[in-house]
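Hi L.,

As promised, non-specific serine/threonine protein kinase:
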Amino acid sequence: MGCSISGLNALSDSVNGKGDVWINENRFRVVRELGEGGFAFVFLVKEIISDPSSTALSKKLKHPSFASDDGTYAMKKLLIQTNEQLESVREEIRVSSLFIHPNILPLLDYAIIPVKGSQEQSFKNEAYLLFPVHLDGTLLDNSKSKKAKKEFFSTSDVLQIFRQLCAGLKHMHSFDPPYAHNDVKPGNVLLTQRKDQSPLVILMDLGSARPARRQIRSRAEALQLQEWTSEHCSAPYRAPELWDLPSHADIDERTDIWSLGCTLFAIMYGSSPFEYSREESGGSLQLAIVNAQIKWPAGPNPPYPEALHQFVKWMLQPQAAVRPLIDDIIIHVDKLISKFSEEGAR
């Protein structure tokens, strides 16, 4: 996996609908746009093998299981204006290349190319990142759909979805040094529907992932990290210790555990447990988070077991030092899966 500047004209023209995309030696045709946000665009692409002597991407991958059966992939295009943005993209590529796990979206290939600027265009570089494609959307998409229909995931599906998410996160937290994802939320969790079983769960978007353990020893360091988290960690899922950092603090991977608790709530009810505060007159999202003021909305009938509510509360403890670690979470979710599968069998 690497980067070259071959086929630059085709690479640039493809985004304007004029041609195909070359990522290193492999050629892809843009099928349609899947989404966009900020300076990022995601396209559905299909590999084109016109020369019998060329090697398909599937033959080059270290892990052939990530290859597409029909040659379709997701291509993320990033527009880069500054050196800071370029370094951020390179860091995303580096981090994405670290983790190989069934519940983490793998980076298959990438290219970073220089772009000739114009009066209308200030972009200096463009990056193209290639991933497996999952067309069933994110947990956020599925939750919105269910909410509109007043439907809910079953208790079994809630636990199975959450268990897979924990498995992906454990892989990151078990790295040496441990990495925090820093933006665990429904919009960064892909779901792929499977017949007669719970959906496949894939944790994606490692652009904010960094080594988890940080020592804050000055006001300047605290403000620097606080500013970084305000840009990279979605507010409704951001841990309380990241809102107003003291000048002396030790931050670790339990910031992700808080986000994980919020995401479990969202699997059940469709949103973060603190988003209600945005709709209240005089409400404060930060205060609701810092004080762990959870409001339980109406759920399915019969309601979710109280054990699930207690599970959420266990992860949403304002003091990070008493929050569980990912291994504790997995032990507990496995017990709940066993408990409710046995009850369902009676």
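DSSP finds ten helices and twelve strands in the chain.

Thanks again for sending the construct details.

K.
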